[in-house]
Amino acid sequence: MGRARTKTKKVKPVATKTIAEDSEPPSIPALLEKAQSLIVQCDYDLAKLFVQRVIEREPTNVEGKEMLGVVQLETGDIEAAKQTFLSLVPPHPEAPSSPPPSAHLYLAQLNDDDPHMALQHYQAGVDIMNSQLKGKERAVDTVGVPEDEAALRQNTVRALIAMVEIWMDPSYDLCFDPVAEKTCEDLLNLALQIDPGNSEAFTSLASVRLSQQRPGDAKQCLEQAWTSWKDLEADDSRLPPIPTRLALVKLFLELSLYTPALLVLQGIMAFDDQEVEAWYLEGWCFFLMAEQAKENGGTLDELTWQELGRDARDCLETCQTVRVYFFFPLHFFDVELTFCDTSSISIRNILIDQC
After folding, report:
1. How far, in Å, are 43, 64, 72, 144, 151 from residue 30 at the CA level?
2. How far apart are CA 180 and CA 163, in angstroms?
3. Which of 6, 36, 181, 331 is 20 to 30 A away from residue 21, measured at CA?
């Protein structure tokens, strides 16, 4: 008797799709998200490829054009970036009905050779952001301030401060205009209405007070600028940006407020001990303290002028070391860097004086 043959089922061939049939092109939001992540990673060439795919599919995509302008700026194509941002604001025929404020803010910075045009763009950006803030205020109240609203307030304040800086810049003729002082006051008052307690606004107001020969009021503004964050840890996200804190230090030094200046610098270097300007300013601070100690019997805060001078030298030698490591140009330190109205000195001179 033969072996029984097992029956086998015939397997029907499964219909398969080709890769081209199965895959779909990535969505516009996915492309924008990828481009944004590449910009954050400073991979601008690859980000540009993703942005271009967006614009090929949607030539009027506002977010895509904004990103393209940013990439062009970061890669040094300044004129192309300017044209991209101009296409996002009136009177360009392709400008959206609600222009993004960032386009005006970028154009303001790209018109640094024309202060009047820069002010117009800053004002347009501020007007748009103010309208957005009013819309958020009319929305349903929530507990606390939403993160996007806080960022919007901060950006509005920074645009107002940038306008103040243009009005105060001695390289422009605007600082001699009779309305310059009142304009700066009005801009900073508006900034503090939008974001009460804003550290950058108080720092800018302190600078205005110094220009008005009102050192007492300037000190009060600096104290208000510092109070809200002076007890925060070095890595706290609520701290102002390092450039803002360095600007505060320079004003402290101009008013001979050495202790708070050193405390702010210590916080900066606890976060980033490779910050060249912080090392320079700390050395400058110790040098000024040594000079004051010489005038006051040889000591200051229980330290002799020689000890303060050695501290100044140590800081400035570290500054030079960090500068060499990061390939800062030599002239950055050889020229006299003036941070106070009354005196200036170069690192090389301090090192020679204290040897």
Report:
1. 17, 12, 21, 31, 24
2. 11
3. 36
How many whole angstroms separate alpha carbon 281 and alpha carbon 77? 34
Could you give the angle at the alpha carbon of 122 between the alpha carbons of 160 and 118, nearest 5°? Answer: 120
Q: What residues form DSSP beta bridges with 289? A: none
Residue-wise pLDDT for 239-296, tens only, equals 999 999 999 999 999 999 999 999 999 999 999 999 999 999 999 999 999 999 999 8
pLDDT tens-digit readout, 90-111: 999 999 999 999 999 999 999 9
* CA nearest to 270, candidates 259, 286, 282, 252: 282
Place of tokens 């307690």: 197
Identity of the amino acid at 323: R
Q: Is the pLDDT of residue 348 over 90?
A: no
The CA-to-CA distance between both ends of the chain, in Å, stands at 113
CB 154 within 8 A of CB 160: no
Residues, the chain: 355
Q: Which amino acid is at 213?
A: Q
* CA-wise closest residue to 201 among 214, 213, 187: 187
Instruction: Please give the structure tokens belonging to residue 262.
Output: 């050193």
- Predicted TM-score (pTM) of the model is 0.81
| φ, ψ of residue 236 in degrees (nearest 5) | -70, 130
CB atoms inside a 10 Å sphere around CB 92: 13
Residue 47, CA distances (Å) to 4, 26, 36, 68, 96 in order: 67, 15, 7, 9, 23
How far is residue 323's CA from residue 283's CA, in Å, rounded to a whole number?
Answer: 14
Do the Cβ atoms of 248 and 267 come closer than 8 Å? no
More confident residue, 162 or 334: 162
The closest alpha carbon to 204, from 189, 216, 213, 193, belongs to 189
Listed in sequence order, the residues at least 6 apart from 167 whose beta carbon sits closer than 8 Å to its beta carbon are 174, 175, 177, 180, 183, 184, 187
Nearest to 81 by CA among 109, 123, 55: 109
CA dist 67 → 6, 54, 83, 202 (Å): 66, 10, 13, 32
